[in-house]
Amino acid sequence: VALGKHLAGIARWQKPGGGYFFWLELPDGADAAALEAAARAAGTGFLPGSACSTAGGLGHCLRLSFAHYTVPDIHEGIARLRRAFVK
Fold first, then answer.
1. Confidence of residue 29 (pLDDT cuts 50, 70, 90)
2. 13 HSE (CA, 13 A, CB side)
3. Any residues with CB less than 8 A from the CB of 35 and at least 6 apart, and which?
4. Residue 51 CB burial class (10 angstroms; 0-12, 13-18, ≥19)
5. Do the Cβ atoms of 50 and 36 come closer than 8 Å?
6. Is 57 helix (H, G, I), strand (E, B) or coil?
7. Cα–Cα distance between 28 and 59 in angstroms, integer?
8. What residues contact 60, with CB distance under 8 A and at least 6 apart?
9. Whose CA is closest to 67, among 20, 22, 1, 16?
């Protein structure tokens, strides 16, 4: 719900069938690693997709954890991430 509210039209994702992460895909050419500093400054974080690639790809993707967070914390974190995108 939080992703749809705050990141619709900015990123694509699918509901995971299991695990602890959402995988978000930004538009081609986006640089998730560059966005990471803005996200941290906004008080949230994620793992850039390039950190998950052995071939140096996935730079336009990011991995979000939803493990160990309350629903209100997830909503706040996604709202902060949205603010990082619009800076």
1. confident
2. 22
3. 26, 48, 62, 84, 85
4. middle
5. no
6. coil
7. 9
8. 25, 26, 27, 28, 29, 30, 31, 32, 49
9. 20
Could you read off the pLDDT of 41-52 as tens digits, one per residue? 999 999 999 999
Alpha carbon distance 38, 53 (integer Å): 22
Q: How far apart, in Å, are the Cα atoms of 3 and each of 22, 42, 76? A: 10, 17, 11
| Mean pLDDT of all residues belonging to the chain | 91
> Do you know the residue count of the chain?
87
pTM: 0.84
For the record, the structure tokens of 14 come out as: 């699918």
Question: How many Cα atoms occupy the beta-carbon half-sphere of 85 within 13 Å?
Answer: 19
- Tell me how far apart the alpha carbons of residues 47 and 50 are, in angstroms, rounded to a whole number: 8
